[in-house]
Design brief:
Helices cover 23% and strands 33% of the residues. By secondary structure, the chain is α+β, with helices and mostly antiparallel strands. Strands 1, 2, 3, 13, 14, 15 and 16 form a seven-stranded mixed beta sheet that branches.
Length: 406
Amino acid sequence: MKNACFIFILCFAVIAFAEKFTIVLIPDTQYPIQGDTSLVYNQFAWIASHKDSLNIKYVLQEGDFTNGGNLTQYAHASTAINFIEKVKLPYLITPGNHDFDCCNGSNLSALKNYNKTFPINRIQTALEVVSSYVKWGGSYPAGTNSNSYHLFTVGGIDWAILELQFGAGFDNGIMSWANSVLKQYPLRKFIILTHSYLSDATSYTPEGTPIWNNLVNVFGNIMFVFCGHVVGGECTWVRTNRAGTQVYQMLIDHQNSIPGSTDNTRTRFLQFDTKNKTVFAWEYSPPDKKMFIGSSAQFTWTNVNFDSVDNPEIPQHQHVTGPRSELWYEIKGRTLTFYLEQPGCSSLRIFNARGKMVADFSNDCKTMTSGRHRICLNPSTFITGIYVADFDNGKKQAAKTLAIAK
């Protein structure tokens, strides 16, 4: 009996530890990559050496890895990445405007050197060695690594990281692809990684505005957005999107052109505690062993909703078409609440996790006036499980995943 108790306690301790993990954010490293590369090498080597002690699960580079996109600088970037590849740390890089072959990002297809240095097969190989919790998802355009997504499970949560190149919001092809990825995995918590997004704590950059309008503000499965680009930028903006999800948005970029400045290697570490629903942020510069203090460098997000559902079957009926939806709805218990801007709607149907329709309120919906409405769901029909409410008001469609529990 004592042995059994001992085994139980040991297993519990391992599970508790696994609930805390770290994601590392590396902002613009363009100046040391162009100049004193030892600073960047030190930065990546320190991260690699602390993989286990910090329980680091992902390293995210926020763009402008280089300062001109030439192969010499990409060779330095590749050497830096080698440090974390050797210790089997998964990573994702998003191209910034200074990572393009030319034109400072004005030509969205000019990423030949980036894709030559970080081709799909290199990333896939890096992920294969940690396939126990992470796997390659896909990329766009076909055959490139310019925009991509990874799937991983850690802290008891199914995650996805969607990486979008600089200027992605202006490209219909990229945005359509990103839209399809978000629809494909409605029950995963998404992290968006892109170079230019936040301008400050209350506004978006020109590149960030279409990403907020057409993706982040629309999809309820987007939870975090990380970016760089704005020189001297360090801010957060926690904002509720149209789907009712609190989105945690973060900008960090301490770059400066002073030779040897360790501001360029200030690194942000995010410790996720899914059990206590917190994310603790702190900053450190490995080359000069400096910890940064202050409310902008160290802070904690509390009451973060990490609640997740385990549902490998994705109903084909889950969709959000168009850049926005004016339909607002929520579920509390078995009461579904929704809002109609105009009288009536084309359809209001509910599907179970296998995609089978279990309720159709379309006839009732067609005669409803504008405003807020409530429908009580029959407990004999809606047992504990996952459902999808699908609305169509004749002009726009929207869907919401509903988790019903006793």
